[in-house]
Write a structure and sequence with these properties.
single chain; 518 residues; alpha/beta; Rossmann fold; 3 domains; seven-stranded mixed β-sheet; six-stranded parallel β-sheet; 21 helices
Length: 518
């Protein structure tokens, strides 16, 4: 049977995806996906983007989904290939990003022989997916794609996975039934039941904070929350690291609960009322000896909206109930200076030079904290962070954002340790000419782990453990890595040299990299 059979299950599946508005597939195919690979020649409405590692496929699909709120496909090879994608699919699940994974399996008649690449793909997929479907006949391809799309329209956990045996990919399929548009079911206005307790809490003269689910971090949600704060004197913070938020001058600057338990508890202890707008009750990132995992006692928590609610509608209702005024939120003031370390000075310059409507991905503590101090006064931009905590997100996420929004400059603020997990993204950036400026904090160590390790004892007394948090002997040559991948690169060790390199990168179309020796 020809691989270009125009009525094959593989072609039917891609065509159905195109009917749903899917236009991109981040692909790392193998032998059991060759019929799907060939189908891209028959169904040209879905563009394949080749990635040389599956973790790049999944991280790029995450970044794409965050920017457009519609899914990209990933294409990976059997269970082991899909397993390589799992860490960034964990991040995508935590980010509530819509993603549809396609996994080619052995032919249905070959599975019984338990050959070397045979595995329990469904068990792997269930760890990160809301929906897992196995296609059992070519005619099943389009209906299974419909079911996967339905899963991506939910409020949270929007990853779907389809397992497609190779024989059914090639098998001819009947024309599927016409696509029927489906509305995502919404909860009723449950949050209205809580207005009677939340509004008095905002008016009783004590301090209150609105703790937002990151899904409310869009431009309208940021504006509404800022105007509620202006009307009531409350604070506003994200209840978890936002997958995407709108930030910069003209946007109200929403705070983030600190990462470490002591400053997080000190921040939240300042509020009598912690009002949950889709957010979960706040807990520490990890469990620490002598620290309660819960950061706020139950009597101080005020439930308002659930994550399943329309959070913008909930904020609009609260906005009206407290008499907030449209346009009243005070624009963000410039941040207080950060101590004059080079990383902080670099972040100040990035914020000062950032183009209007840029997209900034942030992975790593070296640049992450300082940039947050300065970015509120930058030009309006979108920020993509790490809600799932699995490192290796930054470079692929930047790639996916650039594919999703080719007319917006992407700046990837990236630590060197986490960049090593998915450095293959640089090659795909070059292949796609993705408009990304990668800024590597080359401090040659896992800084966050050194900070955590110091909670146990003095690093000087733990030379073996301390060495396991270092990236030295040999030093990583990020300019060499970038240039070998087809990406122009610059190395700097001072703020003025960074200024010159960054300005050059901002005026260059396509991927560039700046290695900052800090």
């Amino acid at each position: 049977m020809t691989m270009l059979n125009p009525t094959s299950g593989a072609v039917r599946l891609l065509s159905r995806a195109a009917e749903h508005g899917v236009t991109v597939c981040f692909a790392n195919p193998g032998t059991t996906e060759l019929a799907l690979t060939a189908a891209f020649d028959a169904e040209t409405r879905v563009r394949p983007v080749l990635c040389s590692f599956e973790g790049v496929c999944s991280g790029a699909a995450d970044g794409y989904g965050r920017m457009l709120d519609r899914p990209a496909l990933t294409l990976t090879h059997l269970g082991p290939g899909f397993a390589n994608a799992l860490a960034n699919l964990h991040n995508a699940r935590r980010a509530d990003s819509p993603v549809i994974n396609l996994i080619g399996d052995h032919t249905s008649t070959h599975l019984k022989y338990d050959t070397p690449l045979t595995s329990d793909i469904a068990a792997l997929a269930n760890t990160v997916s809301r929906y897992v479907g196995t296609i059992t006949h070519a005619d099943d391809a389009a209906p299974q794609l419909d079911a996967a799309m339905a899963a991506t329209r939910q409020a949270q956990s929007r990853v779907a996975t389809l397992i497609f045996p190779a024989d059914f990919q090639q098998q001819s399929a009947a024309a599927p039934a016409p696509l029927v548009a489906a509305d995502t079911p919404m909860r009723g206005e449950v949050y209205l039941d809580h207005l009677g307790s939340v509004v008095p809490a905002l008016r009783d003269g004590t301090r209150a904070v609105l703790l937002l689910h990151p899904r409310a971090a869009c431009a309208e949600g940021t504006r509404l929350a800022g105007e509620i704060a202006q009307a009531t004197g409350c604070d506003v913070a994200y209840g978890a690291t936002p997958a995407r938020c709108e930030r910069g001058r003209s946007h109200y600057a929403i705070a983030r609960v600190p990462y470490f338990p002591e400053p997080a508890r000190a921040y939240l202890d300042g509020f009598r009322h912690v009002i949950l707008v889709g957010a979960r009750p706040p807990v520490t990132y990890f469990g620490y000896e002598g620290q309660d995992s819960e950061l706020v006692s139950a009597e101080r928590l005020q439930p308002f909206a659930s994550v399943e609610d329309d959070l913008l509608a909930a904020l609009r209702a609260l906005h009206e109930a407290v008499g907030a005024v449209n346009g009243s939120a005070v624009p963000s003031a410039p941040a207080a200076p950060v101590p004059n370390a080079l990383a902080a000075r670099i972040c100040e310059r990035v914020a000062a030079l950032l183009p209007q409507d840029a997209i900034v991905t942030i992975e790593g503590s070296t640049f992450g904290g300082p940039f947050q101090a300065y970015s509120a006064a930058a030009a309006p931009h979108s920020e993509l962070a790490l809600p799932g905590g699995a490192i290796g997100m930054g470079l692929p996420c930047a790639l996916g954002a650039a594919v999703a929004c080719p007319d917006r400059k992407v700046v990837a603020l990236q630590s060197d340790g986490s960049a090593m997990y998915t450095l293959q993204a640089l090659w795909t950036m070059a292949r796609e000419q993705a408009d990304v400026v990668v800024i590597i904090a080359a401090n040659r160590r896992y800084q966050i782990l050194q900070t955590e390790l110091a909670r146990i004892g003095d690093l000087a007394d733990m030379p073996v453990s301390a060495a396991m948090t270092q990236l030295q002997a040999p030093h990583l040559d990020w300019c060499g890595i970038a240039q070998a991948s087809g990406v122009a690169a610059y190395r700097v060790d001072a703020a003025d040299a960074f200024d010159r390199a960054f300005k050059t990168c901002l005026t260059t179309r396509g991927p560039t990299l700046i290695e900052v020796l800090c």
